[in-house]
Amino acid sequence: MKNSYNKKALYILGTIATFWVATLSGSLFILFGIIPALAVLAVVPITFFVALHWIHDQQRKRELVDRIADDESLINEEEIYSENLNQVDLNGMELNHINMDGFDLKNSQINSSDFSNSSLTGANLKGSRMQRAHLNGTFLNRANLEGVSATSTNLENANLKNAEMREANLQNAILTGADLRGADLQNANLSGARLNRANLNNAMLEGATYDGRTILPFNEDEAKARGMEKAS
Questions:
Q1: Minimal CA–CA distance to 165: which of 196, 206, 216, 212?
Q2: What are the phi and psi torsion angles at 39 (to 5°)?
Q3: Any idea where the domains of the chain sit in the sequence?
Q4: For the packed helices 34-70 and 7-32, what is the interaxial angle rounded to 10 degrees?
Q5: What architecture is the 85-232 domain classified under in CATH?
Q6: Contact assessment for residue 144 and residue 126, using Cβ atoms and an 8 Å cutoff
Q7: Whole-number Å distance between alpha carbons of 227 and 229
Q8: How confident is the model at residue 153 (pLDDT cuts 50, 70, 90)?
Q9: Which one is predicted more confidently, 128 or 39?
Q10: Is there a contact between 120 and 143 (Cβ–Cβ < 8 Å)?
Q11: Which secondary structure element, helix H or strand E, spans residue 39, and what is its range?
Q12: Phi and psi based region of residue 138 (left: phi greater than 0; alpha: psi -120 to 50; beta: remaining)
């Protein structure tokens, strides 16, 4: 499950970019003088080191998640729990049965990852992309899922009680049997979503959209009465 980024490729690209920018700088020096040439020449090392820092940061965060997956007792360590994991790239990772309650994963990439039967109670996933992810049976109660992109995501039998899900894109998501009691789904996109046997008691549904493919646990009259909007 260990993941690493290809830094060698970055170095190669950096070398190529440096060569071309140096060539461009030489041309600018001939045409316009030294100041424009130096300005362009300074762009490459700055951009290169910013990109390298981002890659190192991503690798460190992914290695931390790997450590938690291998030894969940680490989650009780203050330095682990307080670690900022927002914007982390966890695409395609196998993290089923992991405990990451309360973690800050805001604006992260979780596409096609397997978090099935895990616990993310109270976690902050606001703005994250989790398309085609597996979160079936996962505890997401009280989690912040505002504005997430979860198209075609499997949330079957997930615990989403009191979750914040405003403006979430749940198009074609599987929410069969999910516990959505008290969840805030206002202005969420439920087009094509499957909510059969889902518990939506006390869920806030004003402005949530659905279409003819959506499977709801109640009829259209109730959907309308609860403020849902059917897309044409």
A1: 206
A2: -60, -45
A3: 7-68, 85-232
A4: 170
A5: 3 Solenoid (2.160)
A6: yes
A7: 7
A8: very high
A9: 128
A10: yes
A11: helix 34-70
A12: beta
